[in-house]
Write a structure and sequence with these properties.
alpha/beta, two-stranded antiparallel sheet
């Protein structure tokens, strides 16, 4: 069966599962942020597909037709703004296109709207209710659950191993002779805000454009300490 036709038959959303029938493509390189979105999508009734870079997102879009796309701006192989522009100009268009970022949020929101997105979700998303509202705000009324519904304000607690993967990824990049600071800096800011780690956020903001070897070693040691503090890490 053609996958595009498969998604034309939408189950009706319910008060308990207001995103039932939606297929969401999240383009996000952070495993921790992706895990949070997966949990919120699952509890809301949506089906989730993940791409961790622009190339992977392109492959998904060539096969599937998501109802909603959530695109992080800082990706390892380029800017999510380019993907947003491409999706916004495509026909047929993804029904709801949302940008997301954990760094420079006001400027990021301005950029995603200018690129053609329907809205912006700042990271970290505060609750399931905020996540559902950000998507439902851009869907037609016939895709909304009928009648009153209890608003879920439950916070999301992603798997700490996903956080460990993000921090280990940053350490691997810092081991390079020339780390990609323009990518790594917003990545770490987003991770820090996702776990409410002010010290990590300060370290990320303080990163210069070029990192000499002693600075790289010091930052790797700092991240190593954070990894050891992740629950379940021995």
């Amino acid at each position: 069966m053609d996958d595009r036709k498969e998604f034309d038959l939408h189950p009706q959303p319910t008060a308990e599962r207001p995103l039932l029938g939606l297929t969401i493509l999240v383009v996000e390189d952070s495993r921790y942020a992706s895990e949070a979105i997966r949990l919120m999508s699952m509890r809301s009734g949506a089906r989730l597909r993940r791409a961790d870079c622009l190339a992977s997102a392109e492959r998904h879009l060539n096969v599937y037709s998501p109802t909603v796309a959530i695109v992080d701006l800082g990706l390892p192989d380029g800017s999510g703004l380019d993907l947003i522009r491409k999706m916004a100009d495509a026909s047929p268009r993804v029904q709801v296109i949302l940008g997301t970022s954990g760094a420079e949020r006001e400027e990021a929101e301005r950029q995603v709207i200018a690129a053609g997105a329907d809205g912006f979700i700042p990271k970290p998303v505060s609750s399931i209710a905020a996540y559902q509202a950000a998507i439902l705000a851009h869907l037609p009324l016939d895709r909304h659950p009928k009648g009153p519904r209890e608003v879920a304000v439950t916070a999301i607690d992603p798997d700490p191993l996903a956080l460990r993967e993000d921090l280990s990824h940053a350490m691997d990049l810092l081991a390079l002779d020339t780390p990609p600071v323009s990518y790594l800096k917003p990545f770490l800011i987003g991770v820090a805000r996702g776990i409410d780690d002010d010290d990590l956020e300060k370290q990320a903001h303080a990163m210069p454009e070029t990192l000499p070897a002693p600075d790289r070693a010091a930052l790797r040691a700092f991240l190593s300490g954070r990894i050891q503090a992740v629950p379940g890490v021995i």
